[in-house]
Amino acid sequence: MNVEQGTVFLVLGVTLILFVWNRLRFDVVAMLALLAVAVAGLVPAGDLFAGFGHPAVITVAAVLVISQGLVSGGVVDAIARYLARIGHNPVLQVVTLTGVVALCSAFINNVGALALLMPVAIWMSRKSGRSPSFLLMPLAFGSLLGGTITLIGTPPNIIIASYREGGSFGLFDFAPAGLAITVAGIVFIGLVGWRFTPWRINPADDEPLFNVGDYVTELRVPEGNGYAGSTLHNLLTSGEEEKSVAVLALIRNEQSSPAPSPYQVLREDDVLLV
Fold first, then answer.
1. Left if phi > 0, otherwise alpha if psi is -120 to 50, otherwise beta: which for 173?
2. Where are the alpha helices (DSSP H) in the chain?
3. CA-to-CA distance for 58 and 234, rounded, in angstroms?
4. Per-block average pLDDT, block size 10, for the chain (274 residues)?
5. Measured between alpha carbons, how far is 84 from 86 in angstroms, rounded to an integer?
6. 184 Cβ contact partners less than 8 Å away, ≥ 6 residues apart
7. d(Cα 67, Cα 126) in Å, to the nearest integer?
8. Are the C-beta atoms of residues 214 and 174 closer than 8 Å to each other?
9. DSSP track, 72-135
10. Are 148 and 180 in contact (CB under 8 A)?
11. Which of 72, 70, 161 has its CA nearest to residue 108?
């Protein structure tokens, strides 16, 4: 091992330790690692940020945008309504949820698919009176399996495709092997694997995870108030203390405007849902 190789492994080792230590933000740690290899002369200054233009980075970023669009478009609610019909049979729940997350992860990145369906899995576990770990572990494995089906399912596939000589892989070139692995994995998880999942019994398991009603309230702009005629931005930024609130809607003349602009001018008797 030469000096350059030793330096690379040293930077990677320190970076990994800082990630595990979790005292610095992960993006700061990554930039420090990039700075370290630049100072050590391992990467030319002109190529220091070339990695941000790599097809894998751009593709993953685009897939995450699509994933967020699916969340905002109500896809999670639609999936939850569909999965609510399968009942409380453990095998059926595991097979259905694992299959759905595998299908999603083939097209919207496995991490995005996992984040998309985690709330659904926790909701299903609580409704069935089981520990969330009962479905979360199969869900994680299902997302990994589904990511092997297509080119965009997981970042390693994209990276490998970019280094292939003689032309890149197509979207479904991974499908023959990926589908075989995914089907075999889902069958194993559904029939055998879920039985090895540890169940964590918590006395508070029957309590709701989150009740949005506990965090939402209404604020009315009274007559003669100084904020009438001012913008919503001024209301949220006035004063010395930071206001950790989010305005969900503005109600005026019994008409609700969701997510109002921060430069919306407030009027007397306006109601803010915060």
1. alpha
2. 3-21, 26-39, 55-72, 75-83, 90-108, 110-127, 133-146, 155-162, 175-191, 232-237
3. 37
4. 87 94 90 91 86 78 76 71 80 91 85 79 81 87 92 82 74 91 94 81 52 74 87 78 73 82 87 88
5. 6
6. none
7. 25
8. no
9. HTTHHHHHHHHHGGGTT-HHHHHHHHHHHHHHHHHHH-HHHHHHHHHHHHHHHHHHTT--THHH
10. no
11. 70
Q: If phi over 0 gives left and psi between -120 and 50 gives alpha, with beta otherwise, what is residue 87?
A: left
Strand 218-220: give its sheet, edge to edge: 218-220, 271-273, 249-252, 255-258
d(CA 54, CA 47) in angstroms, rounded, equals: 12
> Which stretches within 197-266 are classed as H helix?
232-237
Q: Rounded CA gap, 230 and 267, in Å?
A: 8
Structure tokens at 62: 């685009």
Place of tokens 């059926």: 92
Both tokens of 238, joined, read: 């006035």
CB 153 within 8 A of CB 146: yes
The answer to whether 270 and 252 have CB atoms below 8 angstroms apart is yes
State how far the Cα of 29 lies from the Cα of 52, in Å rounded to an integer. 16
Q: What is the pLDDT of residue 178?
A: 92
- Whole-model pTM: value is 0.57
What count of Cα atoms within 13 Å lies in the side-chain half-sphere of residue 267? 4
Say if CB 120 and CB 79 are below 8 A apart: yes
Residue 244 in tokens: 């950790």
Between the alpha carbon of residue 214 and those of residues 183, 210, 218, the distances in Å are 42, 8, 12
